[in-house]
C-alpha cells in the first residue's frame, strides 16, 4: 500500500498524472460502502502495455483509481481463469473507451470502491494491438498465500489467450467534475448507476 502511494506521488511530480481530473467515472457499488479516504492510483500505458502498479493491496472502503496515458486504453473486470474476457453476465465494471488521448494524460479517470477483500482481476480490452495478450492485466487484493492464483500465472494465461473480448455493456457511474458523496463525504450509496453509449470512443 505504501508503494502505491509513493508511485502515485512520483507520477504527480513528473506531470504525467494530473491531481485534478476534469471528469471521474466510477463503477456502481453493489452495497453501501463506508469510505476510508484512501485512494490508490494506477496508471494505464506508462512505458508500454501495462498497468502501474499492476498489483494493488487495498482495504474495504478504499478507492482504486485508473489514470490513462496514450493512446486508447481502458479497463474491464475479468476472472482469474479467463484474463481477457469480461465476467459472466456482464457483472463486472467497464467504463467504455472513454479515455482516448493522443498525448499526455486523458482528462477522465475511472474509480471503483473496494467492497470486499476478494481478488479483483482486470484487463485492457483494447483489441488493436492485443493489449491483454501482451500483458496489460492487473489485480487488486491478490491471494499471496496461493501462488497458483498469482498475477504472474494470470499473465501467462493471458498470453495464451487467442482473443480479447470487449464487454458489451457499460457498468459505471458518471460523476463530474469530482465524485459527489454523502454529506459527511465518507459513505457512498448504491443507486448511482449511469450507462450510456456516449461513453464509447473509437477503439482503434
UniProtKB/TrEMBL annotation:
InterPro entries: Cupredoxin, Ser-rich/MCO-related. The keyword Signal applies. Keywords: Signal. The keyword Secreted does not apply. It comes from the Eukaryota. Coiled coil: none annotated. Residues 1-19 form the signal peptide. This is Phytocyanin domain-containing protein.
